[in-house]
Every structure is written in structure tokens, then in C-alpha cells.
Amino acid sequence: MKRTETSVDWQDPDMFEAGNHGNKPFGIRVPSLVVTRGAKNRLNFLTAMWFTPTGFEPSRMIVAIQKRTLTYDFLLERGEFVMSAPTDKMMDIVVFAGYISGRDVDKWQAAGLTAVKPAKISVPLIGEAIGNVEYRVVQQIPFGEEMDLFVGEVLATHVRKGAVEGELYREDSNPLLYMGTKYSPDGKPLGKFYTHMSTVERANYESPLLRKYLPQPNKE
Ligand SMILES: Cc1cc2nc3c(=O)[nH]c(=O)nc-3n(C[C@H](O)[C@H](O)[C@H](O)COP(=O)(O)O)c2cc1C
Q1: Number of separate domains in the chain
Q2: Tens digit of pLDDT for each residue in 71-86?
Q3: The domain that contains 169 carries what CATH number?
Q4: How far is the CA of 8 from the centre of ligand 1 (A)?
Q5: Which of 9, 36, 61, 190 is a plausible cystine mate for 152, CB 3.0–4.6 Å?
Q6: Domain range for residue 174?
Q7: Radius of gyration of the CA atoms of the chain, in A
Q8: Is residue 6 part of a domain?
């Protein structure tokens, strides 16, 4: 089939301004605490935002971990981790774990977290979290000088009782949401910001646009 050329009606980008962080429009997400355990059984966790869930069955998580972290060492030692989704009451712990290294402080003890028995691995769940997922490292992918990507296969998922309806967070379940870093006009970071969930809305599948282009059943 011959393709016809389409001419594009280009508009000036007057409605946009440059964001000074590459992924700014995708800033708001649930932050994660990545829990690990060393060969000598020490527990540790860091705050991570460079992660993405991938695929249904098997479901995997890709998370970028810097080589200088204690988490990196513990991932190599045990090949297992837990990713914890904090509630909005855990902001203090999320901020703390994102700045302090387990190389300097026993963060698990300092934060006073509750170690809950996992189902499949030997790294604890965080009792205070809104949800925890257990992973086994199935791949480690070099990603530049400073970090590697770790691919974790989901082995078990634990969601706080009453926090979800079906597969969704309830409106009043209060997961913590990370918004990103605010910068001054000259590019100085003014702090990282967090927010709270306020409403849950159902997507509109009665949308006129969707209905117009959904494949219609044969009318024979
Ligand atoms: C909001 C936020 C997100 C972060 N995301 C990541 C991340 O995805 N990967 C990473 O290696 N470090 C990330 N960091 C930095 C680590 O949390 C930090 O270096 C931590 O102190 C390392 O702890 P550890 O040495 O105990 O493993 C992030 C920090 C903050 C504040």
C-alpha cells in the first residue's frame, strides 16, 4: 500500500518552558525503600526513585543502584531484596534513608522499623509500610560508570489490609507520593517534595473518542 505524505500543522511551543530535570513530567510516584540484608545478616535500606515495574507474568522490577551504596554490596551478597511502599506517615524515614548510608549508620535500628517475616526470601518486609514486594535478582545490567540496573523477579506481594479495593489503593489509604526536586531559577536545588493522594477516579471508557475508534462487532 502506498503511503500518502501527511503535512503537520506545527505550532510554536509557547505553552511550554524548559524543565531543568529530564524526567520532570513523570515526577509524581510512590517512592520505594529498597531493603537488603548482608551476608553477615545486617539489615539495610535506601530510598530509591530510579525504578520501573515491567511486565505481567512474570512481573519484574528494574531498579538502578549506585555502586557506592551499601545496598549495592548487599544485593551482590544475597541476590534478594524487598521493595517497600511507604505510607505518608513515613516521610521522615524516606528522607533519612535517601541521604544517610548504611556504611555510616545502622539505618534499620535508627529508624526503629518492624521486621516482618517474608514468604519466599530472607530479607524482611517493613511492618509500617503500605505494601512490600519480595524479589530475587535475575539479572544485573551494567549501566554506566556509577550504577547497575538490577532486575528483580516478583516472588511475593504483600499489601496492607484494608488499603486496597480490588487491585487499587483506596482513597483513604494514604500512600506517600514523591514529587521531585524544586530548583531555583539559577538551578540550585531547593529541596525534594512529597505529597499525599487526595482522590481516586475511574477512567471514562464511555469517552466519545474511544467509542468512535473501538473496533465494532460485525453487523451481519
Ligand atoms: C528521593 C531519592 C531517590 C533516590 N533514588 C535512588 C535510586 O534509585 N538509586 C540509588 O542508588 N540511590 C538513590 N538515592 C540515593 C540513596 O538513597 C542514597 O545514596 C543512600 O544514602 C544510599 O544508602 P546505602 O549506602 O545505605 O545503600 C535516592 C535518594 C533520594 C533522596
Answers
A1: 1
A2: 999 999 999 999 999 9
A3: 2.30.110.10
A4: 43
A5: 61
A6: 26-213
A7: 21
A8: no
Q: How close is the Cα of 99 to the center of ligand 1, in Å?
A: 7
Atom of ligand 1 nearest to the CA of 178: 1
149 falls within a domain: yes
Q: Which atom of ligand 1 is nearest to the CA of 95?
A: 31
- Where does the pLDDT of residue 23 fall: very low under 50, low under 70, confident under 90, or very high at 90 and above? confident
Give the DSSP H/E element, type plus range, for residue 109. Answer: helix 107-111
Res. 219: pLDDT tops 90:
no
Most ligand 1 atoms within 8 A of CB, residue of 43, 45, 47, 176 to mutate: 47
Average pLDDT over residues 22-32: 89
Q: Which residue's CA is the closest to the ligand 1 atom numbered 7?
A: 48
pLDDT given for residue 26 in this prediction: 87
Domain assignment of residue 12, yes or no: no
Q: Which residues 6+ apart lie within 8 Å of 73 measured at CB? A: 38
Weakest mean pLDDT among 40-44, 104-108, 116-120, 198-202:
198-202
- Residues in contact with ligand 1 (CB, 6 Å cut-off): 31, 44, 46-50, 64-66, 69-71, 97-103, 178, 192
Q: How far is CA 85 from CA 63, 139, 143, in A?
A: 14, 22, 25
Within a domain: residue 205?
Answer: yes
